[in-house]
Amino acid sequence: MFFGRxxxxxxxxxxQWDSFRDVLNMTFNSYTVADCQGVWQGKDECTKYVTVSTKxxxxxxxxxxxxxxxxxxxxxxxxxxxxxxxxxxxxxxY
Length: 94
Prior knowledge:
Layout: E1 2-4, E2 6-7, E3 10-11, H1 14-27, E4 32-40, E5 43-51, H2 57-70
Antiparallel strand pairs: 1-5, 2-3, 4-5
Helix pairs in contact: 1-2
């Protein structure tokens, strides 16, 4: 999910973003957030890139919609890829 921080009225502040993370916390047990730079309609904007591995696509869409509504966004980027795989420690060394 790509959450742009520019809004028609200004900018999603750090405090507003931290408050929105409550939605992420209520929806997903784990996720990763990275700061990145994006471009929307030719304008640079700071963006929060959130990755989550889940089989519940409807929850992901709901979170994107909640952000778009809360901050009057034209759109929220959503990239769906292959499910995450995990590499775990082995109980024995070969």
